[in-house]
Amino acid sequence: MPQQHSAVPVVSEEVREALDRRQPVVALESTIIAHGLPRPRNLAVGAELEALVRAEGAVPATVAVLDGVPRVGLDKAQLERIAGADGAGGGGGEGVRKLGHRDLAPAIASGATGATTVSATAFLAARAGLRVFATGGLGGVHREWAHSQDESADLALLARTRITVVCAGVKSILDVPATLQRLETLGVTVLGYRTDRFPGFYLADSGLPVDWTARDPEEVAAVMAAQDLLAGPESAVLVANPVAEAEQLDPALHDRVLAEALAECRERGVTGQAVTPFLLGFLVRATGGASLEANLAAVRGNVRLGARIAAAWAGR
Ligand code: PSU
Ligand code: MN
After folding, report:
1. Which residue in 29, 123, 250, 273 is deepest, having the highest Cβ count within 10 Å?
2. Neighbour-count burial for 6-27, b at 16+ CB within 10 Å, e otherwise
3. Which residue, judged by its Cα, is nearest atom 2 of ligand 1?
4. What is the predicted pLDDT for the residue at 27?
5. Which residues does the record give as substrate binding sites (predicted)?
6. Is 31 in the pocket of ligand 1 (CB under 6 A)?
7. For residue range 185-223, what is the model confidence (pLDDT) as tens digits?
8. Does residue 74 surpass a pLDDT of 50?
9. Can you give the residue ranges of every domain in the chain?
10. For the segment 84-139, what is each residue's pLDDT rounded down to a tens digit?
11. May I ask the CATH class of domain 10-314?
């Protein structure tokens, strides 16, 4: 049944008011909540991330699609549905799909409920007029790319979306050098935050360098302003913010368990959208939860920094 919506996306009143008053707003994705973290911890994390944004004086705008309506800014009940905690079978839990930007049109047309990945979140947030987005780690080129051609839609979308994405690099389950190369080819600006090393998601350092370093939120905002001044292709800025070394996953454990995860993924023939959640879930179990703590530490740091960048941007 075709659906009709007056405005896409629907922006919550709180987010709309903040944008109108030029107050800082930070977009948050929902795939990490629905598919990237184990339940029931995921709901607490979703709420915690919003609270962290507020504690920094900014307004959080979690993005998702509910009953075919793309939304920027969720209320408590909407966040609970995405986390699968409504218990009422109203499309929550397993019924929450993972939506990249290409999935938005069919989700709208069919009235589906789903969590948005980096690509869908960046797209909807930019459409709503948001400029700053915080997440964990981006998708990218998978290690089996030559065989599977699996490159996250995150990369191409960020090559044509004017938004600043704070992340802990790209997920270390990926081919990180290939992903950095693709970002260069696609023309996406990458800034290390207080570092000249590209972060490794669970690890503070992926072993690869970055060309540019920002020392504070004002410097990031200055890059954003320069992007607008140039009026070049509508591309993103990645702010690569490393997890604190004290909170990173033990690198030796990381390398060992990741090799097991990749082998298991191959053996089971996991493909497509299922690959990233499978690998993240495997790592959580195989590290006894240590990868989850490192993942959360990275996301928390990114969300806090996102709020500060949004404040610097709003203050310009
Ligand atoms: N960061 C995390 N956990 C996640 C993701 C990012 O800490 O689960 C999600 C993001 O939504 C990202 C997606 O867009 O993983 C990438 O999935 P894929 O590789 O299928 O494009
Ligand atoms: Mn993929």
Report:
1. 29
2. eeebbbbeebbebbeeebbbbb
3. 136
4. 98
5. 98, 118, 152-154
6. yes
7. 999 999 999 999 999 999 999 999 999 999 999 999 999
8. yes
9. 10-314
10. 964 433 334 458 999 999 999 999 999 999 999 999 999 999 999 999 999 999 99
11. alpha beta
